[in-house]
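Deliverable D2.4 — example input (structure tokens):
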């Protein structure tokens, strides 16, 4: 029995990037992954290099893990698309037939149209039909929503290509005598492309032909028009001027920029279409207050009236368009007997009444676009201001304003206007704490302020004590914060409400669709649909693509609902599912960053699959919170958590968040010891020791690592023991205990060789170079660096390659080959930056500074040292900063800048002594020498 090859996918670039196999859409992943696919499709059948893909996705400043991210994207796309996506060295190509890409079909149809000689109308008609078919392939802006510089360049190119084809079709329409249908289209195109002379010429041609026809018609109709005006006379009654805007609180505060945007957008001057502006945001953020305040300020610009309707979008009984239209028509002078019964007829009469009149409409608390559309006027003299918790993506709004909570200063000002500025001044710290407790939410601030305003004997501290704890105890009723949030919550179906509750369980600031799916036990597509629905309803915010977060008070509301509905067992199960997902992602990250490392197969098995981590810093912080919360609920899961943190070793290196790991790692280690989990104790002990080593706390690190090595030995965890020994050696090296470091490096290489940890042995060998040089075993050091470089390149280990180049730079410096040392360090730094290893940038800058000093170039050393100092500051690497200050001070002294040298060396001595580093004595001696030189 032979299998059939799957049908090749059909790709679409002329709009949002999509792919279908038959009638089934293919899941192409996040926007950046689709951007990579678009680059391959735009160069279909050609080889696109890895560096070109990185530049196209991120430009001049790629993230640290760019190479791994691209490889991960290609891997996932190959699983979706099949064998057509192939790898060639350090590049990729995608084989696509001309009938399976809309861009290729577009170019083919346009080319066939141009091939017609258009010698007579029949051929012009055929050419016009081909161009129309080509333009029909477009589904919106090309590559819509894709990030990156290459997507922007291609989007502009394809937009120009479409415009060129569109103008060719318009020219054929004019030739075929169809100019009467082109005026509106050309007006819009000229507004969109005001500098395009060809479009203006086409528009002028159409206007001239239209004018000639219109002059002929008007000449024939003048006499009839005059008779009708005589019959009508001038006795039409004046229409009423509605003024329906509600009251605006006198304490309106802040929102200056948002207010300016609305006033400028809704200004009726020089407008040709109806302007619709939308104000969105979570419940209680002040949408209605801002909209009505803006409308009040615009009253004089809309002298024919202002209409207002509360559409009750989040209520169980939202306003029906027909009923709202009836109210508007009554306000516009239509008596009840004259009101049409059918909603469509009411809408037609309503638009007739608004025609030519300057009227502003405020449609408050809209549920969705379907509720709004019948209420939109047709006259360009009108303007519409809509508020909604719903994002209303289908609404043709000229401008959207998304309200965030008030900043601290504006929130304090609002609170002061309610309770009195003197009470704020009397308790400034308590006032700031109260603003923070209210999360900057105007509704919560008003409720808190109202309590204080009606209780003049209360201090702000008294209310803070009342508010201490979960939830926001307010006055109840429809005006309460909880009631405001519940209106949106009640619109959810059961699955959406469950996800809303469950994603509030972990103590993380954001959640992505994959994590939400893991928490709730859903597939990712379903979780993403629910998250989007929650965002549309204003119950979540989406600060970045595929990232969602709660407002602080909304998270408290969701957590309270979860405590009501989900018991401890279900909440713990959700956390364990999330921890399983986190470990799966950490494993994938480790596999990408440390190719060939056997640890990948020795981690706790997971149910979930996971993509590598792209942005390490925020992810790591969230993982630490989840790790501790999971262990609070289930201490026996310490093996899973220890493995997760161990697998994030490359992510900690990339983000350099080692300081954030120390306290959580100590807690995990204590739980591992309480649970008598030897393997977990060894693994988390290694991570704690790594953190302490990076932070320059070498003696403390060595003590922790000795215990970790004992645990790893007892648990026969030889792969991890290899890395522990290397880290112990680095700690002894930091204390200038070179012989102990040498012995530990040798042991690490022996253990790694015996257990098959090639990555570990390569790392130990490369790290040992500094120690060998200090022990004056120069040939061994050079050989170790060369072997490390060959091994790293052999397994595609970019970090290992960069570190080996760094080691070769040190060897060259100690051998007096300064130029070669500088070249090696710069090559290593470039490779490290592209791979996302900021610590290597610091290490290379420091060593390059030392190389310039050794070569007798103090000015170059000082310039490089300043860059190294800035890099250590960005990374927060205190030990490296202290060592850089010593080198920089030495360079400045050698270049004759004694004042700056003294300042740098003084700071170096302070920091080196505080860290207990041996270089403190060298720095002190340099400072003393400088002072001696300066003494007359």
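Example output (designed residues):
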């Amino acid at each position: 029995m032979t299998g059939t090859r799957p049908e090749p996918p059909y790709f679409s670039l002329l709009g949002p990037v999509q792919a279908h196999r038959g009638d089934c859409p293919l899941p192409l992943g996040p926007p950046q992954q689709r951007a990579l696919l678009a680059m391959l499709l735009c160069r279909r059948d050609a080889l696109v290099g890895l560096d070109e893909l990185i530049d196209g996705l991120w430009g001049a400043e790629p993230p640290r893990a760019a190479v791994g991210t691209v490889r991960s994207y290609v891997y996932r796309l190959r699983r979706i698309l099949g064998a057509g996506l192939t790898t060639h060295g350090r590049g990729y190509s995608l084989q696509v037939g001309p009938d399976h890409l809309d861009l290729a079909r577009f170019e083919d149809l346009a080319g066939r149209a141009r091939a017609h000689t258009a010698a007579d109308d029949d051929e012009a008609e055929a050419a016009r039909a081909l161009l129309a078919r080509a333009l029909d392939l477009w589904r919106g802006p090309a590559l819509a929503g894709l990030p990156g510089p290459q997507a922007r360049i291609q989007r502009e190119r394809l937009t120009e290509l479409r415009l060129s084809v569109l103008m060719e079709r318009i020219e054929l329409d004019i030739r075929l005598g169809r100019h009467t249908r082109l005026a509106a289209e050309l007006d819009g195109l000229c507004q969109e492309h005001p500098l395009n002379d060809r479009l203006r010429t086409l528009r002028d041609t159409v206007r001239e032909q239209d004018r000639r026809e219109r002059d002929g018609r008007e000449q024939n109709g003048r006499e009839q028009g005059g008779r009708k005006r005589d019959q009508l006379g001038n006795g039409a009654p004046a229409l009423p001027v509605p003024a329906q805007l509600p009251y605006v609180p006198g304490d309106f505060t802040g929102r200056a920029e948002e207010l300016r945007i609305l006033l400028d957008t809704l200004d009726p001057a020089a407008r040709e279409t109806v302007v619709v502006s939308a104000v969105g945001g979570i419940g209680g953020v002040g949408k209605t207050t801002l909209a009505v305040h803006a409308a009040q300020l615009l009253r004089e610009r809309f002298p024919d009236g202002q209409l207002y309707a509360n559409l009750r979008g989040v209520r169980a009984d939202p306003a029906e368009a027909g009923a709202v239209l009836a109210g508007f028509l009554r306000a516009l002078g239509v008596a009840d007997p004259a009101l049409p019964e059918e909603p469509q007829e009411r809408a037609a009469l309503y638009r007739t009444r608004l025609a030519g009149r300057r009227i502003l409409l405020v449609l408050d608390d809209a549920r969705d676009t379907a509720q709004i559309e019948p209420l939109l006027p047709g006259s360009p003299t009108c303007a519409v201001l809509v508020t909604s918790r719903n994002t209303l993506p289908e609404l043709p709004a000229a401008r959207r304003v998304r309200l965030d909570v008030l900043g601290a200063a504006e929130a304090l000002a609002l609170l002061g206007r309610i309770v009195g500025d003197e009470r704020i001044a009397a308790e400034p710290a308590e006032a700031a704490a109260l603003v923070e407790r209210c999360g900057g939410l105007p509704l919560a601030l008003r409720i808190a302020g109202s309590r204080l305003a009606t209780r003049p004997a209360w201090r702000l501290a008294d209310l803070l004590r009342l508010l201490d704890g979960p939830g926001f105890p307010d006055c109840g009723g429809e005006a309460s914060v909880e009631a405001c949030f519940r209106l949106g919550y009640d619109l959810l179906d059961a699955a959406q409400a469950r996800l809303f509750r469950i994603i509030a369980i972990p103590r993380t600031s954001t959640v992505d669709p994959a994590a939400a799916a893991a928490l709730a036990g859903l597939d990712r597509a379903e979780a993403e649909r629910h998250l989007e629905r929650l965002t549309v309803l204003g119950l979540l915010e989406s600060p970045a693509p595929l990232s969602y977060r709660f407002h602080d008070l909304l998270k408290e509301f969701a957590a309270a609902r979860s405590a009501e509905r989900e018991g401890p067992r279900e909440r713990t199960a959700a956390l364990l599912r999330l921890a399983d997902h986190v470990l799966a992602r950490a494993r994938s990250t480790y596999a990408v960053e440390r190719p060939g490392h056997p640890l990948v197969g020795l981690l706790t098995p997971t149910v979930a699959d996971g993509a590598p981590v792209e942005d390490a810093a925020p992810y790591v912080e969230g993982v630490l919170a989840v790790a501790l919360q999971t262990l609070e609920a289930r201490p026996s899961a310490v093996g899973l958590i220890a493995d997760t943190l161990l697998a994030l070793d490359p992510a900690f290196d990339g983000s350099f968040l080692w300081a954030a790991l120390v306290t959580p790692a100590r807690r995990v280690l204590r739980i591992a010891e309480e649970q008598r989990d030897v393997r977990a104790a060894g693994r988390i002990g290694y991570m704690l020791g790594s953190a302490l080593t990076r932070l320059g706390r070498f003696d403390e690190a060595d003590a922790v690592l000795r215990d970790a090595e004992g645990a790893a030995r007892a648990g026969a965890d030889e792969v991890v023991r290899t890395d522990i020994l290397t880290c112990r050696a680095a700690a002894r090296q930091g204390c200038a205990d070179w012989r102990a470091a040498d012995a530990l490096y040798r042991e690490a290489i022996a253990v790694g060789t015996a257990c098959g940890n090639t990555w570990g042995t390569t790392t130990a060998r490369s790290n040992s170079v500094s120690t060998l040089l200090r022990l004056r075993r120069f040939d061994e050091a050079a050989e170790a660096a060369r072997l490390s470089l060959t091994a790293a390149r052999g397994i595609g280990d970019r970090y290992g390659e960069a570190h080996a180049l760094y080691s070769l730079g040190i060897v060259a410096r100690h051998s007096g080959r300064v130029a070669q040392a500088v070249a090696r360090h710069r090559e290593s730094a470039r490779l490290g930056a592209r791979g996302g290893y900021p610590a290597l940038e610091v290490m290379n800058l420091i060593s390059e500074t030392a190389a310039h000093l050794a070569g007798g170039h103090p000015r170059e050393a000082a310039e490089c040292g300043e860059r190294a100092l800035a890099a250590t500051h960005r990374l927060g690497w205190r030990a490296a900063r202290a060592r850089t200050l010593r080198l920089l001070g030495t360079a400045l002294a050698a270049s004759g800048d004694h004042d700056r040298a003294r300042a740098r060396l003084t700071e170096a001595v302070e920091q080196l002594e505080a860290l207990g580093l041996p270089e403190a004595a060298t720095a002190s001696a340099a400072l003393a020498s400088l002072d001696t030189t300066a003494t007359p």
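The longest helix spans residues 197-232.
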